[in-house]
Amino acid sequence: MKSPVEVVEAYFDAWSTQDEVKLRGTLAPDVSFVGALGTAEGADACVKGLVNGMWKLSPRVSVLHRFVDGAEVLTWFEIHPSDRAPVPVANWSHVENGRISRIRVTFDPRSILEKR
Questions:
Q1: Rounded to whole angstroms, how far apart are CA atoms 82 and 44?
Q2: Is pTM beyond 0.85 here?
Q3: Parallel, antiparallel or unpaired: strands 99-106 and 27-35
Q4: What is the pLDDT of residue 116?
Q5: Is 18:84 a contact under the CB 8 Å cutoff?
Q6: Domains of the chain, with CATH numbers?
Q7: CB neighbourhood size of 87 (10 A)
Q8: Cα separation of 26 and 115, whole Å?
Q9: DSSP string, the chain
Q10: What is the pLDDT of residue 11?
Q11: 52-96: per-residue pLDDT in tens?
């Protein structure tokens, strides 16, 4: 079984390569997501949210640092909206039985939400 940090690394690798199959493999069936722009319950809803939302907004992410405390993994990264400056994001993931069961994300969405 992969360690929590390996699971979260695979999640971000799936985002970077836009690999839905790999992404789904990192998520528990009953994963819970709460973020600045929405919530999702279950793996299907989480995959749909990333594919139809964040992957379109920011197909590229840059992981800056990862903090690990047992099953808790905090990833500090930047999203790169195509026509805007990078946006710093904190992603706190909880891993159980080799899959992410809870994701909490926070960032300042103002630069993404403002119209150009």
A1: 26
A2: yes
A3: parallel
A4: 54
A5: no
A6: 4-113 (3.10.450.50)
A7: 19
A8: 34
A9: ---HHHHHHHHHHHHHHT-HHHHHHHEEEEEEEEETTEEEESHHHHHHHIIIIIHHH-S-EEEEEEEEETTEEEEEEEE--TTS--EEEEEEEEEETTEEEEEEEE---HHHHS--
A10: 97
A11: 988 888 888 999 999 999 999 999 999 998 878 999 999 999 999
Amino acid at the residue 93: S
**Which two structure tokens, joined as six digits, stand for 40?**
């999702």
108 pLDDT band, cuts 50/70/90, is very high
**Which residue in 60, 12, 16, 37 sits closest to 107, CA to CA?**
37
The number of angstroms, rounded, from the C-alpha of 37 to the middle of its chain's C-alpha atoms is 12
* Residue 69 to residue 2: CA distance in whole angstroms: 15
